[in-house]
Design a protein that fits this description.
This protein has a domain of 137 residues: Tetracycline Repressor, domain 2 (Orthogonal Bundle), CATH 1.10.357. It is mostly helical. 74% of the residues lie in helices and 0% in strands. This is TetR/AcrR family transcriptional regulator. Keywords: DNA-binding, Transcription, Transcription regulation. Pfam families: TetR_C_13.
Length: 198
């Protein structure tokens, strides 16, 4: 019984991992049971079975992509002290992630945000919650740094979050669309300048 549960989990993970790679290029809407079945050498029923529906498979893929983003950026940043040090650590990890993305077409969260922003439904709702949480994490570090006197008292936390997000999205486009090898280094410099610090 345990072996079959382990095997089912491994199969599910394999499907999701392949789905993340495919959706990175084709988008979540372009993720099909048929394309996954072909890539994995499985039947369509075998691919959809662990999820129950294509919509649940798409949600599992998006959930995994968000987890990879979190593991690459938030988790290492948590080792730094809250405030400016943690914000700097997040910026460094974020720019490294953009420069060496695990996805064929760059930041999955950025691509999914563009794809889903006008598409109501469970996927958009889930992604909105995750992006809101990420922005809240950044905002919290700005507020803590400001209260500790590490940043200017007049610095607006929401302005900083919007600016950092805009720089990251521009860098992702410069890397992926324009092939600019210097974009991540520039993004890190711009983000660090935007945050400042005393």
């Amino acid at each position: 019984m345990r072996n079959s549960a382990d095997e089912a989990r491994r199969t599910r993970d394999r499907i999701v991992d392949t789905g993340v790679q495919q959706a990175s290029g084709a988008g979540l809407a372009g993720l099909t049971i048929g394309s996954l079945a072909g890539s994995l050498g499985m039947s369509k029923a075998g691919v959809v079975g662990p999820f129950g529906s294509r919509a649940e498979l798409q949600l599992a893929v998006l959930t995994r992509a968000v987890a990879l983003f979190t593991d690459a950026i938030v988790t290492p940043a948590l080792a730094a002290e809250p405030g400016l040090a943690r914000l700097h650590a997040a910026i460094d990890a974020w720019c490294a992630y953009l420069a060496d993305s695990p996805f064929p077409n760059g930041c999955f969260v950025t691509a999914a945000s563009c794809e889903l922003d006008a598409q109501p439904g469970e996927l958009r709702t889930f992604l909105r919650e995750q992006v809101t949480r990420w922005r809240g994490f950044l905002r919290e570090q700005v507020v803590v740094a400001r209260e500790a006197g590490e940043l200017g008292a007049g610095l607006d936390a929401d302005d900083v979050v919007s600016l950092l997000t805009g720089i990251a999205m521009a860098a992702n486009q410069e890397i992926q669309l324009l092939g600019d090898a210097t974009a991540a280094v520039r993004a890190r410099r711009l983000m660090r300048t935007a945050v400042g610090g005393r």
